[in-house]
Amino acid sequence: MNIQNTDVLVIGAGSVGSMALWQLSKREGLDVVGIEQYGRVHTHGSYVGESRVFRTAVHEGGTYVPMIQRARTLWRELEAESGRNIYAEVGCLSIAPEGFADFTTALGTVRDFDLKHRTLDTEELRREYPQHRIQDGDVGLLDAHGGGLRPEVAVMSALKIAEANGARLFFNTSVIDVEERPNGVMVRTTQGAWLAQRVVVASGSWSSRLSPELDDLLRLQVLGLTWFMPERPELFVPERFPAFLRDVGSVHFFGAPSFDGYAFKACTNPEWPVYRDVADVPKHHTREELIKIGQRAAELFDGINPEPVRESVHHCAYTPDRLPVVDRNDSGRVITIAGLSGHGFKFVPQLGEWAAQLVAGEDTTIDPRFALAAHMERLAVTGPYTGGGH
Length: 390
Ligand SMILES: Cc1cc2nc3c(=O)[nH]c(=O)nc-3n(C[C@H](O)[C@H](O)[C@H](O)COP(=O)(O)OP(=O)(O)OC[C@H]3O[C@@H](n4cnc5c(N)ncnc54)[C@H](O)[C@@H]3O)c2cc1C
Hints:
The chain is of the alpha+beta class. The protein folds into two domains: 3-47 and 152-218 and 320-382, FAD/NAD(P)-binding domain, CATH 3.50.50.60; 100-144 and 220-316, D-Amino Acid Oxidase, subunit A, domain 2 (D-Amino Acid Oxidase, Chain A, domain 2), CATH 3.30.9.10. It has helices spanning 15-25, 65-82, 101-112, 122-128, 151-164, 207-210, 287-300, 348-359, 372-382, and strands at 3-11, 32-35, 52-54, 87-88, 92-97, 117-120, 138-143, 147-149, 168-170, 175-181, 184-189, 192-201, 219-228, 243-248, 251-256, 264-267, 310-318, 325-328, 334-338. α1 (15-25) runs parallel beside α5 (151-164) and α2 (65-82) packs across α8. The radius of gyration is 21 Å and the shape is globular. The protein starts with a strand and ends in an 8-residue tail after the last helix. The structure holds flavin-adenine dinucleotide.
């Protein structure tokens, strides 16, 4: 068997992998290889779907704020290096009934961290955002640095820069297994084998296939996307319609302005079960699901056609408490980043930077709760993620 050598091999050229490749490729004298089972930017990953909500007022509390602030700087660097528009800082508007728990946490976060924001009462929401049908008692929080990220453009840009910096990328090549040896890590692929001094496993929803130690921890949540045509598309353009999160009763909607000029994104998730393997995840909504989502959307947005004009169904690997796994194994050779739990795109450049620092054995600011051992201790108490986490 022909075995090739490299300093660092990144498995998966998706959200985390592309950012790790970008960051690693900046390091002088390091030979960097990326292996991706599909083509360069494809339709199967967790990043697919035109936009991702970026917000600094993260409802999960202050855990993520420093990560997101660093990611914000790195998103701007990626834009500058690539010359592409990736981060549309149009604001992110949370709308919920007064006293709603997630909303209150987000408000606490922006106040504690002194993040630029504005609060809106019911009348202000109605006056300034007529696209939303505002319910009595709704209040708003505009996260000024929030907005929409362009995930496909981001992944493409990071990969292009990595390649221009000398990284070697191999597409339509699947990693079959990873095995530590005394002199490195053997990575067998469908196109031959590599002996790498360091490996970054960034294989998203497929992580458990390559890293059996993640099998008990990770579960796949199905996440659907839907786009609707408004009668007045000019009201839904990024300049007038921020990215949004809406909570009405038990229904959670999220979405983004119209980037294509005719439809905007508004999504809510049916009660899908969790899965263990990507092969089992449904590929589309059912007709009944689309009708129901359309009816709900028409209750929340003014003047929209309730039939989605685009729809797609995706997956993402979740941990029980939705904290990511960011860890290096005992030998220091294998770095694993997984379990981004449906909210991780916004901070992937930070994860890419951490991957490069872990490869180099440098100090990082990684939260100790992201370590695999810490996850497993919590898992023993909570049990695995069971769904409903978006
Ligand atoms: C519908 C949806 C909406 C979301 N909304 C938001 C949002 O608004 N804001 C936010 O911040 N986050 C959001 N997220 C979460 C975020 O998009 C994901 O957490 C993130 O994209 C996961 O990145 P990843 O690198 O782990 O996986 P991916 O981006 O899927 O990358 C994994 C890559 O590894 C490759 N791979 C896997 N196995 C192998 C192998 N054996 N050999 C070679 N290659 C392999 C895959 O093909 C893939 O390219 C959303 C997710 C979904 C699905």
